[in-house]
Structure formats: C-alpha cells, structure tokens
Amino acid sequence: MRIALAKISLIAVDEAHCISQWGYDFRPAYFNIPVLRELHPKVPIIALTATATDKVIQDISVKLKLREPTIFKKSFARENLSLTVIITENKQHEVLQILGRIKGSSIIYVRSRKDTIEFAQWLNRHGYSCASYHGGMERSVRDKNQQAWMRNHVRIMVSTNAFGMGIDKADVRLVIHLDVAPSVEEYYQEVGRAGRDNQDSYAVTIIDDADINHAKQNFNDQFPSLEIIGSVYDRLCRNHKVAYGAGMLETYDFDLINFAEYLNIPVKKAYHIMNILEKEGWIAFSDAFKEPSRLMILAGQEDLEFMENDKGLKTIIIIHLLRKYEGLFTDPVRIDETKVAYELKIEELKLVHYLNILKSEGIISYQPRSSKPQITFLQPRPVEQSFSIDKRLYKQRKKMAEERLEAMIKYVLDEKNCRQKNIIEYFGEIKGDCGKCDICNGASEIILSPEQVIKVFDHLFKTISQQPILIRNYVALYPFNKRRRIVRAIKQFESEGKIIIDNSGLIHI
After folding, report:
1. Mean pLDDT within 61-75
2. pLDDT for 508 beyond 70
3. Three-state SS at 96
4. Residue 84 pLDDT > 90, yes or no?
5. Is CATH 3.40.50.300 the right assignment for the domain spanning 81-215+414-439?
C-alpha cells in the first residue's frame, strides 16, 4: 500500500462529525480513517468540525482513537450575525423585501433540486442576478455557477445544502432558508457562511405552516420502520430471483425508478431504504447508480418548431422527453434510456444512436452513463425471519435525528427567547442575549406606544383611502420585528370601529 510508505507529518480529518453515529451527517466511509493510525501510529492527528455537540466530540475521539486529545473549542456565538425567523403565507414577497433591504452577496437554501432552478429563474425575472447549484448538476455547470458567484458576477446563489462545503467567501451578507433544516447543526453551519469578514450580516429563515409538516415527512421517509426495511430487502431479492442462502457477491442491473414502481412507493423513499441497506452492509451500488445519464435541450423554441414539420424518430423522441421530464431547457436532467426506449417501443441501442445524432446537431446536450447502474449483494440471502440490521443502533440514530429535528422546529417556533442564545445553549455553551436577532429587536413584543399607535393609524388610513388592502400585505410593509405589534394595533382599530375587516381579510375604512 503506497500510503503506508508515504512520509506523513500530520493527519487532518475535516468535517470530523461525519465519523460519529450521533453526528448529523454520519458517513460510514469515515470508519476507514482509523486505518491511517495503524499505518502511521506516531503521526499526530487533528479532527476539525464546525458543529458538534459534546457527545459528538467524545464519539469522534473514540472513533479516531485519539489518545488524551486536547480540545480547542471556539465559542459558537457570532457577534456580527443577526438571526431572524419569518412565518408567512407569501415567502416570495418576503424574499424580495429582504433582498431589497440587505445588499451584497447572498445564498438562498432550498431543500429540492427542482426548487433551485425554478426559484433562481423567478429571481432573475425580478431583476436579481442569480445562479443555481445542486449535487445532481453536471460538474462543469456547477463549477461555472460557483465561480460566477465567487467572483461577484452574480449576486445570489440558490442552492441545496450541497453548496457551501469548502466555500470560503468572506463577503456574504445574507443567507436565507426557505425550508426547515433537519437539524440545528446543519442550519448553523449554513448560516455560518455569512459574515466571515466580521462585518454585519444576516440569516433569515422564511417558512410557511406547511414547511414543518414537510420536514417531519422527510424525517419519516429517511427512517422507515424496521419491518419496511426487511420487506424491501426481501422483495429486492425476489425481484432479482436470488434464492435463500445464495446471492453473495452476485451483481445485477438495477433501476431505482422501476424498483420503486414495483414496490409502489415514492422513489425518494426507496432511495433512503436502499441507502440504509448499503450502510448496513447488505448491498453495494456501482458508481453508475449515482451518476446516471443526463440530457438538456439546447435548441431554442424556433428550432423545435421547425422540427415539428419532421415526423421522424428524432422529433418523436424530443416530444416524448419534453412530456416525460421537467426542466430540460434549464439544466441537465437525469434520464433513463431503458425506460424511454420501452415507452417508445424501440430498441435501447437505437434510442442512444438517435440521441447522439441530436447531440451532434447541437439540439441536445447528452451525457450517457458510463455503464448500467448495478447492485451487488454482499451477503447470502437469509430466510425472511433471519434478516436483520443493528436494531439498537438504528433506533438510537433515529431517536437522535428526531431530537435534532425537534430542536430545529422549537427554534423556528420560539417567539420569546433570543435566537442565538437558543443555538448556543444547544451546543452546551452559556451565553447572554445577542441583542441583534429579531426577538432581541422586539419581534416578540405586542404593544405599541400611544405615539406609535397614532402613526400606524394615520399611515393605515392613508393607505386604505386609496383602496382596501389585505391585512397580510399591509403588515408586510413593516420590518418583521414590528409585525406582531402592527397586527395587534389593527385588531384594536377594528374593535374601536375605526376600520372594517371583511371575511377575505381586506381592510376598509
């Protein structure tokens, strides 16, 4: 082994929380790192992480076999970072309001790849220079978008959590979350990308009532019951005709979408279950499973209209792809040639041949997968009653993930306690109020002074003298830390008979 012969003076483990089963981003591959200690027992080792509770720190020390480690721990407090949570019925309106008030480089985090494209397009239509980024993008597109943002050629990056690891851009002024993050650790690491130059910066979470339910549903998808995991493994074996006691190291072609349809469950849920089976050592995926074929339409609308006069197979293929896949004009999209060929009732080789012709004509960008996705069974198939995973560990990891999500939900719903203090205490640190978050700036207060009440009424009266306005639209005219007080004042005006609020929420004189 070459690494055993290499001259090494230091072993550095970045994102070290990934080795901990109690960390928010546990990755089994990190378990191979301690082999380096065996090969180089005298070489010092350093483990680095930005977000780890005391339990995770202890677990990192054990897993990496650190001998009497010295812990260097910087305060989690960010004196220059202002945290805000907005719960609203109109997220897009709030984003435009914030981008108008806070200038400078920004990141907007969303939880789905599709949303990165659509929200970036929406912002561009509203006059904001914007790029998108997600893990499923073609690498060259990802790199191009990242560099454009790093060099301030575009102001805003709309991204999934795939963006940010290793990014060191000091002048990020604003980080917006449009969903509920699955953990405080992940959330704080993402907002921590703002204000690394120690200048005043802002982190705003903008959610609606449905987002909390979505977060809970995502959690349930990631941690299905043990019975469901066992059932999926059994049906996986049956689908590939693997006999009891057989199958070890046998490899089969595997299509996740077809398998999800066979199971009659969403593809995302099937993916999570297959990941669990892989982590538990029952199966392994080929690289092609994670790198499928991708296709993007490069031709403009006029070119496609010209093709409509052609009734040949190329036109039929393009029309079918447009009906089957979304976003083909904006981003390379994953496609399944086997399935498309079956639906078109042609041979797969013939489909690929025509896709390459379309590529050569500049009509599409087409990156075929290097090989068919495959799955390898790592153990003989046991009888159904004998299948097992480490139940104790699985339940513990599920419980920890649930507690992390509950802590995150508690954070976004808390209307009384300082935002930063909430997070600091989560990581086991005692700190006073930050004086900068929305709560510290009065978001939890509900009473205006008599002078402020008069000013609000005068402004409201002038506004509705022109035309009635919805309560939520009027309240949105004010900074988020004053809105509870404005709502209370409006209800007071209604009770005094100064205004009328109809059933649709419109305010009238």
Report:
1. 82
2. yes
3. helix
4. yes
5. yes
Confidence check: pLDDT of 327 > 80: no
Q: What DSSP state is assigned to residue 131?
A: E
The H-or-E segment that residue 207 falls in is strand 201-207
Look at the block and give the residue holding tokens 């009424």. Answer: 457
DSSP assignment string, 164-197: -TT---TTEEEEEESS--S-HHHHHHHHTTS-TT
153 touches 102 (CB < 8 A): no
Nearest Cα neighbor of 17 from 400, 406, 421, 429 is: 400
Residue with structure tokens 């994953």? 334
- CA-to-CA distance for 501 and 509, rounded, in angstroms? 9
Residue 165 is predicted with a pLDDT of 64
Asked whether the beta carbons of 180 and 212 are under 8 A apart, the reply is: yes
Sketch the domain layout of the chain as residue ranges.
2-63, 81-215+414-439, 223-290+373-399, 293-367, 445-508
Nearest-angstrom CA–CA distance, 202 and 193: 10
- With a pLDDT cut of 70, the percent of the chain lying above it is 94
Measure the CA–CA gap between 329 and 106, rounded to whole angstroms.
Answer: 25
Report whether 189 contacts 107 (CB < 8 A).
Answer: no
Whole-Å CA distances, 3 to 28, 32, 46, 115, 321: 21, 13, 18, 42, 47
Q: Would you say 380 and 245 are in contact if contact means Cβ atoms under 8 Å apart?
A: yes
Architecture field, domain 223-290+373-399:
Orthogonal Bundle (1.10)
Rounded to the nearest angstrom, the gap between the alpha carbon of residue 235 and the centroid of all alpha carbons in its chain is 30
pLDDT of residue 302: 65
Residues in contact with 3: Cβ distance below 8 Å, sequence separation at least 6, in sequence order? 36, 39
pLDDT at 139: 73
CA distances from 219 to 184, 397, 435 (A): 14, 12, 33
Q: What is the DSSP letter of 71?
A: P
